[in-house]
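Record type: ASSEMBLY
Status: queued
Input:
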Amino acid sequence: MLLIDVARTSAAVASDAARLAKIAHLAELLSRVGPDEAEIAVAYLSGELPQRQIGVGWRTLQDVPEPRQVAVATLTEIDSLLQRIKAQSGAGSQAARKALLADLFGAVTRQEQSFLQRLLTGELRQGALDGVMIEAIAKASGAPSAEVRRALTLRGWLPAVGAAALRGGVEELRAFRLEVGRPVAPMLAQSAPNVTAALEKIGGPAAVEWKLDGVRVQAHRSGEHVGVFTRTLDDITAQVPELVEAVLALPSDDLVLDGEVIALRPDGRPEPFQVTGGRVASKTDVAVLRETVPLSVFFFDALRAGGADLLDLPDEERHAALEAAVPPELVTPRLVTADAEEGEAFFADAVRRGHEGVVVKSPSTPYAAGRRGAGWIKVKPRHTLDLVVLAAEWGSGRRNGWLSNLHLGALDPETGGFVMLGKTFKGLTDELLTWQTEQFLRLAAGPTEDWVVSVKPELVVEIAFDGVQRSTRYPGGMALRFARVLRYRPDKRAEEADTVAAVRALMP
DNA sequence: TTCCGACAGTGGGGTCGCAAT
DNA sequence: ATTGCGACCCCACTATCGGAA
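Status: finished
Output:
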């Protein structure tokens, strides 16, 4: 199959807003692709590469050669070129990668160039990724989408699942099982403003668990071999020896556990996320780092234990299996209750101890990996500040033509100026985007950069955020974590905004 | 007919590894 | 030694479609 076929299908998918039409376009192409190229086609049309990442981003793709006039490149040819690019490493590799990229882009038409560029930068923007592709695979293969979804949960990689479905239909999909040593797509949580609301959503008794601000881990043990994987299924076994040892110390040698690693201080309180994240990402000097920044692990789920696969069992049964397999000090603290007051108190205690919040879990839901089902609901405290808009950036995609991303500052009473604390684009409705674009253009101050418009610091906006963290990027040495817009405060003048000191008081 | 679950898009801060400078 | 880039940890929120109620 030619790359142009895939690029044209992608264009058709993008041009139809209706999901059923997108699915029809994708299924039509999948029904035509041969078995050797099915995995590539599924990958490209769901915004992935068979190689996952190849070390090429937006900067490397700045200048590409003139396109060909005639489309001749096959999926197999493109795939092997990308494979060669990924294989480049060591001194001179950047030049080698650029040369191969020039070959690649010189061998395809303008439409294919655009497609590849968006694919490689992870910005396909055709309104279809895994969710729509699952339905398309189902349609093209004749297998029920629930079977496709289940196989994806167990295999964690849709191109492989799609190829299997197209090759062998539902029978081949059913051959996917939980394999110890191969990560499963992790179950995700929705969110609620408080424990009371979360309990209401679940209706009846629920488990309320500490939410630790660390890194999600899935630990597999088969015999004396342990593998540890992140949320995106990357293998981090070598970076977390403490976790490997903890799993090897368990009595069972046949386990798949879900949990969180976190760096704790000697007094047991959690380090800021930056510390845990940095430690987990470090690949060098791990033996030294484990002395200075030791990691602890807390498990909250068992996908395999006691010689059985547990994914389809309800939460309370999986948790019972977890408690049987793991000593209590390695199990995430948890309270089962239907009482909102009790749940809120448990939440308040977790936060008081420095943790991120809680996750409220329905006792009856199976491990529904990969879908943000209503089985798990996270609850975190929310801070707010009234800050001043210092500038705004032109948006892209559906926000084209709107000033979207806000630069936020706190008042510095000493100078009467403002100290930037970060940016946000979240929480804005189309109506608000329209309104603020008008306001910012009215308040535009000085020369306007390419994509940034500086504005007179007059508009006050109420910002919600999860916390304040240390920053080397911003002048105050602080940045907001997960900042989002709640509302504008036309009733407040800039001189009445919250101060730098007020923000500093929130630093851990 | 209305409601709501699931999805995709639109970007945020921080940190590490690596190659180039 | 420093800088820039790519990858990947953590992520919130809105608009939209289409099936559920």
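Annotation: The longest strand of chain A covers residues 383-394.
Annotation: The longest helix of chain A spans residues 158-174.
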